[in-house]
């Protein structure tokens, strides 16, 4: 049985952290069963400390066959990775893969290429987020000339420790950050008009995470397109 220590749901005395107007959302598709993934996991941790970046780790499940079931693996994460591939017209998926702003993929362990992709990235849609009286308030500004997009709520764990007992990384005690625990559609954003959402923090905390990201992403006939804007909240 896996030994997992979740460093989540910090005490209420800890300061809240809001991240608005980042230049990049970086999604890492990774697996505890992949021997090439630890360097990318470590890189994502460092990116998570950059105020210009919202970093998210999507643990996939298709490596489970090698002898270790990823404790955070989720078929929905694998489906999201496949949806990106289909949107780009390629059948290829791999780990570790980083996707920057829904538009560009980079091998997640290639530090120089990842940083280059982030330097050239930008998000132009304003997404403001605020915590008030037990509610999370999100406001998305208008921007003309843009196709409709989906507003996603992503919950994540800021940090977790896992002792891996089998598979390619057997014997390693791994530290993971920004581990996605859920992704839900809040609604549609129609481009020309702004949008507001109010979310109860107590219910969001029950998702098993102490981090929340709001991501506005173009929809390409049901497939993910470019990310237009994002914001995050942590406590």
Question: Which characteristics define this entry?
Answer:
single chain; 235 residues; alpha+beta; Immunoglobulin-like; four-stranded mixed sheet; 43% strand
The amount of beta strand, in percent, is 35-45%
Report the principal-axis shape: globular
Number of strands: 13
What would you call the quaternary organization?
single chain
- In N-to-C order, the SSE pattern is EEEHEHEEHEEEEEHEE
Architecture (CATH level 2) name: Sandwich
Distance between the termini: 29 Å
Classify the helix fraction into a percent range: 10-25%
**What's the CATH topology label?**
Immunoglobulin-like
CATH superfamily: Immunoglobulins
Tally of separate domains: 1
Determine the structural class based on helices, strands and strand pairing: alpha+beta
Radius of gyration, CA atoms, in whole angstroms: 17 Å
Tell me the number of helical segments per DSSP (H or I, 4 or more residues long). Answer: 4
Largest sheet: 6 strands, antiparallel
Poorly predicted runs of 5 or more residues: 1-13
* Mean pLDDT over the residues: 89
Write down the CATH class. Answer: Mainly Beta
Short description:
The chain is α+β, with helices and mostly antiparallel strands and about 240 residues long. Helices cover about 15% and strands about 45% of the residues. The protein has a single domain, classed as Sandwich (Immunoglobulin-like), CATH 2.60.40.10.
Topology:
Elements: E1 3-6, E2 17-20, E3 24-30, H1 38-47, E4 53-59, H2 75-88, E5 97-100, E6 104-107, H3 111-119, E7 127-132, E8 135-140, E9 149-163, E10 173-189, E11 195-200, H4 201-205, E12 211-220, E13 223-234
Parallel strand pairs: 3-4
Antiparallel strand pairs: 1-9, 2-13, 3-5, 5-6, 7-8, 8-11, 9-10, 9-12, 12-13
């Amino acid at each position: 049985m896996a030994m997992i220590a979740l460093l989540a749901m910090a005490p209420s005395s800890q300061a809240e952290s809001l991240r608005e107007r980042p230049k990049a959302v970086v999604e890492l598709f990774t697996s505890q069963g992949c021997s090439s993934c630890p360097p990318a996991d470590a890189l994502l941790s460092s990116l998570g400390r950059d105020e210009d970046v919202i970093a998210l780790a999507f643990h996939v499940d298709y490596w489970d066959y090698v002898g270790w079931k990823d404790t955070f693996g989720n078929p929905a994460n694998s489906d999201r990775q496949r949806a990106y591939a289909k949107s780009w017209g390629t059948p290829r998926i791999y780990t570790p893969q980083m996707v920057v702003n829904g538009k560009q993929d980079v091998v997640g362990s290639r530090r120089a290429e990842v940083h280059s992709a982030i330097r050239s990235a930008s998000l132009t849609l304003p997404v403001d987020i605020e915590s008030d009286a037990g509610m999370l308030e999100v406001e998305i500004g208008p921007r003309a000339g843009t196709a409709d997009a989906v507003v996603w709520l992503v919950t994540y764990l800021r940090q977790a420790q896992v002792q891996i007992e089998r598979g390619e990384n057997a014997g390693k005690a791994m530290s993971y950050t920004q581990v996605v625990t859920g992704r839900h559609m809040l609604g549609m954003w129609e481009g020309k008009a702004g949008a507001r959402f109010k979310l109860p923090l107590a219910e969001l905390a029950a998702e098993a995470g102490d981090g929340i990201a709001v991501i506005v992403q173009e929809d390409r006939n049901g497939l993910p397109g470019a990310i237009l804007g994002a914001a995050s909240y942590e406590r």
